[in-house]
Design brief:
The chain has a two-stranded antiparallel ribbon with strand order 1-2. A hairpin with a 2-residue loop joins β1 (96-100) and β2 (103-106). It is globular, with a radius of gyration of 25 Å. It starts with a helix and ends with a helix. α4 (52-59) runs antiparallel to α13, α10 packs antiparallel against α11 (193-210) and α15 packs antiparallel against α16 (263-284). With 285 residues, the chain is mainly alpha-helical. The chain has helices at residues 3-6, 10-35, 45-49, 52-59, 66-76, 110-115, 126-129, 144-154, 160-165, 167-187, 193-210, 224-231, 233-242, 246-251, 255-261, 263-284, and strands spanning 96-100, 103-106.
Length: 285
């Protein structure tokens, strides 16, 4: 049955593959819009059909502003009513919209504590956190059980005693920031408090984790380059979420090359190399 296909000309084979892909995509879109478990949740059909809706608003205009579009969706779509009922009765008592094929968004703040609490049955979205291209990180671990195991290793570092022992380091970093503020006030120049507070956080964390801080507070611009680098990682996460097969390809590029192509991704690649070496040393030691 497949012999004619293998003997087909390249042009016919390309047409066959294109039609197959189109047919698969069409069936998938129909399922997502009409037969998916979230099909009755209100929201734009395009968002229900493809993740490209979310990706577009993450890049259009000011980047990573999809949350602004979500707020507009809550205004555009009312409560969820049972279709065909003589007296429409809300099936859901709070604002809810479908923002992607497999996601809904709840605007009621009371839902936060119901979902995000110790012992929650809800786990992280592996597809979303997979966009960070760091599967060994505790932050990106989707499984509650695996996250609990990884978190247990760090529990002692966040005990009350350990945190109190860190107070001197925190006070030291805050004092450096206050000196920057005093100099700015005296000279009448502007100071970016956002970068200042981020520099305090980064210097405290790296001092505690590595025994030596990144020293962002010692820089005149309070580590502006580092902050910009972290900020520019956002678009890559959206791309990897939309096309997850790209992540292992990009991460396989040599560090020197990827630094030339995209410095933020080169930074992530370097962190992955350090993580790999650390895990390897733990195995052999």
């Amino acid at each position: 049955m497949l012999t004619p296909l293998f003997n087909a000309s390249p042009s016919r084979l390309a047409i066959w593959l294109a039609l197959t892909f189109f047919g698969y995509s069409l069936v998938r879109v129909i399922h997502r819009i009409f037969f998916h478990p979230l099909a009755r949740v209100p929201g734009p059909k395009l968002a229900a059909a493809t993740l490209l809706y979310q990706t577009y608003y993450s890049f259009a205009g000011s980047r990573s502003r999809f949350y602004i579009q979500i707020a507009k969706l809550h205004q555009a779509y009312g409560k969820w009513f049972c279709p065909g009922a003589a007296d429409p009765v809300p099936l859901v008592l709070g604002p809810i919209v479908r923002i992607s094929p497999d996601e809904v968004h709840l605007s009621d703040a009371e839902n936060y504590d119901k979902i995000y609490h110790v012992g929650s049955k809800y786990s992280k979205d592996g597809k979303f956190y997979g966009g960070f291209s760091n599967p060994n990180s505790m932050f990106t671990t989707p499984s509650n059980e695996l996250h609990r195991t990884r978190r247990a290793v760090l529990n002692n570092f966040f005990s009350r005693k350990s945190v109190l022992d860190l107070e001197d380091v925190v006070q030291e970093k805050v004092q450096i920031l206050m000196e920057h503020v005093s100099k700015a006030l005296a000279s009448g120049t502007a100071l970016d408090v956002h970068h200042g507070l981020r520099a305090v956080s980064i210097d405290v964390i790296t001092d505690y984790a590595f025994g030596q801080s990144y020293g962002l507070l010692d820089q005149p611009d309070l580590g502006l380059e580092f902050s910009t680098l972290v900020h520019r990682l956002g678009p890559a996460a959206w791309v990897f979420r939309q096309w997850p097969w790209l992540s292992p390809i990009v991460m396989a590029i040599p560090k020197s090359v990827i630094y030339f192509i995209n410095k933020p991704m080169g930074f992530v690649r370097e962190l992955q190399i350090v993580t790999f070496i650390w895990n390897w040393l733990k195995v052999i030691c």
